[in-house]
Amino acid sequence: MKENSDILRLRVLLAFLNDDEPCTVMSIARTLKEEHYTISRVISSLEKEGLINRKAPRRPELIRAALTYHLQLKRYHF
Questions:
Q1: If we measure between CA atoms, which residue out of 60, 13, 8 comes closest to residue 34?
Q2: How far are the Cα atoms of 7, 17, 31, 35, 50 from residue 65, in angstroms, in the given order?
């Protein structure tokens, strides 16, 4: 189950890099074909890790510098 949640977290992060649509919980949910409450929970967890900025609650933003740092750390754990 942990592996599935990690994959969903990665898919949500990648959705922020897609410039085709504005990044809202609903647009990400539609793109990933997931429930909006699932996406909201994932975004909340990413915010706690410092990867997402939710100053505007309806328009979360990816913090690219934090993402780069996080991905570099992950490489050392694999």
A1: 8
A2: 21, 13, 24, 28, 10
Q: Which residues share a beta bridge with 53?
A: 61
Residue 40: exposure state from Cβ atoms within 10 A (0-12, 13-18, ≥19): middle
pTM greater than the 0.90 cutoff:
no
Backbone angles phi, psi at 62, to 5 degrees: -80, 130
6-35 pLDDT, tens digit per residue, is 889 989 988 888 767 778 999 999 999 999
Neighbours of 76 (CB within 10 A): 6
